[in-house]
Amino acid sequence: MTVQNVVWPLALLGIVAVALVFIFVISQARQPATEQETARSTHTAHVIQAWFFGLLVLGFVVGTWLTLRHFPIPLQRGAPLAADVEMDVEGFMWGWTIPDTPIQVGQTVAFRVTSKDVNHDFAIYGPDGNLVAQTQAMPRVLNKLLVTFQQPGEYTVQCLEYCGVGHGFMRTKLTVSKHATGTAPGGTTLGKGGH
Ligand SMILES: [Cu+2]
Fold first, then answer.
1. Are 117 and 96 in contact (CB under 8 A)?
2. Which homologous superfamily is 79-177 in?
């Protein structure tokens, strides 16, 4: 299950919860309170506010730590700087020019990404539908993206930067094959790689 599939029901639940709080508050509205009641409820409100903001700050601190402590992620930390394969990628309205170089599991590919016209975003989704890596494709700029392919299958390249009416169709496939027999360690291809 992708993260998005978890997040949107949670967001929906959150919206419903906020709506229920509003409905509750409106349903509790009645005649103006006496001075004593007002003083008491003001004090209570201050205490609740202090706790609420305290917990909110604590939540942000803990949430930030939980989500950022993985960085730099092991793939980036341990990735070899030398690539097994180099591929020149060019985005254009609306498609991708990518060489037909065979890729095998375990190989590190250096994508040298640029654009022919406007800004695009070169994003690679794995066979499971999860985002593997992405970088901007910009005219007159060369961005290098190192990706070590961990699983075989069909990867989808999709533009992630809105670039006009054809943006949604700006996708193509990358096939990553299993280790072919007769492949030397380090990824030197002896066979055709079952493309
Ligand atoms: Cu686009």
1. no
2. Cupredoxins -  blue copper proteins (2.60.40.420)
